[in-house]
Amino acid sequence: MADPVLVGDIGGTNVRFAVARRGFAGHPLISDISVMPGDDFETFDAALKTYCDALGEKRPKQALIALAGPVDEDHVKLTNRDWTVDAVRLAGHCGFRRVRLVNDYAAMARAIPELPDSDFRVLRAGHPDQEGRNPILVSGPGTGLGMATLIPAGATGWRVLTGEGGHAAFAPFNAREWALFERLSESHGYVSRELVLSGSGLNAVHKALCEIDGVAWEETGPAEIMERAQQGDRICRDICEIRARGTLYALGDAALMNGTQGGVVITGGVAERLADWLAAPEAISRFLQRGPMSDYMTPIPIRLLLSGEAALVGAAALHFDEVLSA
Q1: Same domain for 302 and 317?
Q2: Euclidean distance between CA atoms 110 and 66, whole angstroms
Q3: Angle of helix 44-55 relative to helix 87-94, nearest 10 degrees?
Q4: What is the C-alpha to C-alpha distance for residues 244 and 283, in angstroms, rounded to an integer?
Q5: Contact, 134 vs 128, CB < 8 A?
Q6: What are the residue ranges in the chain where pLDDT is below 50?
Q7: Distance (Å, whole) CA 7 – CA 299
Q8: Are residues 40 and 124 located together in one domain of the fold?
Q9: Could you tell me if 159 and 87 lie in one domain?
Q10: Are 41 and 323 in contact (CB under 8 A)?
Q11: pLDDT at 12
């Protein structure tokens, strides 16, 4: 039986850790979950040591950490936090036999087959293959905008292809979005999907729309923007619509390019707050309308992931996949 493993999910906002074991039918079981604000720590090493000290004698001998940034030979520079993580340094510092680093969306994607239906909200049912063995796109706006494709391997296995699709160029759809794009181009140069759609770009988008409308800008939190949007404030409503519709526009492009007819799973805290906006017919239409290839999009289901522990489960699944294949 596989030994337990310490797993981590390190995003731009929170640091999550857990201990994982291989349970019934091979599904990972996680326990000892800890969620801590990243701002509480100067370095990732300090966050991990805090968790390990709390575990005491229960600390596993191996760790697999999923981080929001590209992995380069056991090093990760987080995209939205000034942390650099080194697997060899961590192993020595915290007494692990081995530490493995993966992109956070590799873990997020690998979690999808391990999670119950209750962890998802169906935004569009579609008509997926009943065998469930087609590729699945996993992406969505949180602090940043991650993206990965889950690919069937053999009769029951899975592989994950990661990339940096969130940093692809934002594509305006209507006059309002073109005006936003042009204003952001003046202030930022390159306008990525992540800048427009994710939490890290909220202030930039809000400020740009205020400037376009000749309104004084004041920094406003996500919850207040949502509340104002519900009350009919034009700029706040436009922020919600642009982000929801832009997310599905971007994911429709990615689904078409990657052939992910097994479905699209939308993730991230921003996406959860925009759930009703994402489910709106205008947003779904952005996903489906692809000219002569629109029929290709029709079978693809769209689901919103609601589990905050998904990447921990996926990190454990990636570890046990490796152990069993060795």
Answers
A1: no
A2: 11
A3: 40
A4: 6
A5: yes
A6: none
A7: 35
A8: no
A9: no
A10: no
A11: 78
